């Protein structure tokens, strides 16, 4: 058992690494120029190139993969010369990068050739101080300085080079002289819980992702609570009545419900309950972050759609397993022994018959996530699925990668739990 | 080969043999119904190649008309005839694949068909190698497939399409990648079973190459389950194409695509319900038909194996 556990954990880690690489490089290699999306089609190539370098996209792909996964503060630290720390912003609570200059959090900026150090005070405000003596000289005699700028990048300023950068502000692009030569956006890396900045919203992905995950968890949880008992019940009923009319209805109905794409089911439910009968809200519009708790009716149609899709599948699995168990010798023995039929079913058959569906349900989480994406898009439900969808459409790779990693982690974790549950439930299986 | 059949009358002719293997479909009522549903759409598709009631892409009519004499199923939000669009919608799925570029060239076989062929080729190759060679081959191939399976399918579609853009070829690639792991697992388990047989031992003793044994000895004997599985996969593929179309990232215009028709029409769902209902029903019936067919066929085939 211990060996089996270790093996599956190692295999899981390798799988996760492969998945992260596939995700990163697929989006890396394939995705078009994201700066066109952010800056608009009328931006000049020069502006785009400048903005690309500010996003750190000019670094080689493998380097960015390592940064993305494991962070880069440990790598950049030696260049800046001070330890790099994150301090939450007083207003937004989002992490900001500072260099720790002898206990004093500091950032730098270059204004009209003057290097200014911004020193953070206890109340969150900063004081400016001219630090012209800090320039260093390289072999060719040019003066340079590595520091942390106000946008969470580690940057290299060159004195007197007059490099110009295009800075994106709320009002548009602004040209600035004396810009830094090299940008390295600082990040802690996915392994330490920092997924980078969402290119769509300009906020850290982790700040926007979790509320979406919560919404999806509520939706999937409610659907699960409704689907499970109902599907198992229908499956068992069909399995006991194998070949009879009731079984036919449940089996074929289940097949039909599973084979119908989620969006078709959703559209028909909207038509019936939202438009013709006008009983339920046809879309899930969130007027506040906690709208689902204030108005649970918003959940009704999304949950019904998910139920319709999942119900058939699980019921069919349960049925197949029940049929197999009811065919087995020990059930026949119990019946011949003169045990009441109901007792044979409840005490002997069901326990064994439920084993397979439980594992399969765990494997089925992948499918459920797929259904969630579609259901959330149909109803405009602000959950994880819609988050991935919106991010993928925009090309916001940081957000897609993080959200996809969340779904993959959930899927792999449930599969592992399913494997373990199966071994624990079934004493006949023992891993050497 | 005609001379080589002197025992005429004893051996059934080729046609009879073929009919015998096809007749199994009609033993199952479920499979027959499923086949009828699929054939209905295939027929519609072939008719649409030569004739549709109106020009599918022309905005010739008033927008959002209810069903009437000229437009049997009504018109959509751009005043296009829904009947014609519905009919032509079968083409991209089942009958033709548009090649990339500006050329108007299409190859026969729809996106769903090519996607499934792709996943069969890739999956069978990986699965046979893993199953027959075993050892490190097995470990490495299965590890890679595990990583692919770990992706929720739709997330993989979204990532592939976000990365490579829209197009028939991209959708085929997406279906191939998502379908291959399942095929590979099936092919692997079949190969592991078949490689213990005597005729494989005989081939090995003859000194046949590994490739010969995999593709000429094992593959033909693993054909049945793989084909039934492929039938189900065509259903999944159409399901996937519909979903992608609905999400607005599926097959590109101008050819009508059912999923995309639903997607566009649902914006006017309060004023025009017919435009949503018909393409939805079309996808649902085609996918359900394929599922019924594959399911009935599998039931019928496994009945004799018991």
Put the structure in a nutshell.
Chain A has 16 helices and 11 strands.
Q: What structural keywords apply?
A:
heterodimer, A: 432 residues, alpha+beta, MetI-like fold, 2 domains, five-stranded antiparallel sheet, four-stranded antiparallel sheet, 11 strands, 57% helix, elongated, B: 306 residues, mainly alpha, two-stranded antiparallel ribbon, 70% helix, globular
Structure description:
The complex is a heterodimer of chains A (432) and B (306). By secondary structure, chain A is α+β, with helices and mostly antiparallel strands. Chain A has two domains: 146 residues, no CATH class; 223 residues, MetI-like fold. Helices cover 57% and strands 14% of the residues of chain A. Chain A is elongated and about 100 Å long. The N and C termini of chain A lie close together (7 Å). In chain A, 38% of the residues are buried. The mean pLDDT of chain A is 82. By secondary structure, chain B is an all-alpha fold. Chain B has one domain: MetI-like fold. In chain B, 70% of the residues lie in helices and 2% in strands. Chain B is built from twelve helices and two strands. A two-stranded antiparallel ribbon of chain B has the order 1-2. In chain B, a hairpin with a 7-residue loop joins strand 1 and strand 2. In chain B, helix 7 runs antiparallel to helix 10 and helix 10 runs parallel beside helix 11. Classes of the chains: A alpha+beta (432), B mainly alpha (306). The interface between A and B is large, with 51 and 47 residues.
Describe the secondary-structure layout.
The complex is a heterodimer of chains A (432) and B (306).
Chain A: H1 2-30, H2 34-39, H3 45-54, H4 61-70, H5 73-80, E1 84-88, E2 95-101, E3 104-111, E4 114-120, E5 126-130, E6 136-137, E7 143-148, E8 153-158, E9 165-169, E10 172-176, E11 180-185, H6 205-240, H7 245-259, H8 262-276, H9 291-294, H10 300-326, H11 329-336, H12 341-353, H13 355-363, H14 365-379, H15 384-394, H16 397-425
Antiparallel strand pairs in A: 1-2, 2-3, 3-4, 4-5, 6-7, 7-8, 8-11, 9-10
Helix pairs in contact in A: 1-16, 6-7, 6-10, 7-10, 8-10, 8-14, 10-12, 10-13, 10-14, 13-16, 14-15, 15-16
Chain B: H1 14-27, H2 29-50, H3 82-95, E1 96-98, E2 106-108, H4 111-133, H5 135-150, H6 153-164, H7 168-194, H8 198-206, H9 210-221, H10 223-246, H11 258-265, H12 274-305
Antiparallel strand pairs in B: 1-2
Helix pairs in contact in B: 2-3, 2-12, 4-5, 4-7, 4-9, 4-10, 5-7, 6-7, 7-9, 7-10, 8-9, 10-11, 10-12, 11-12
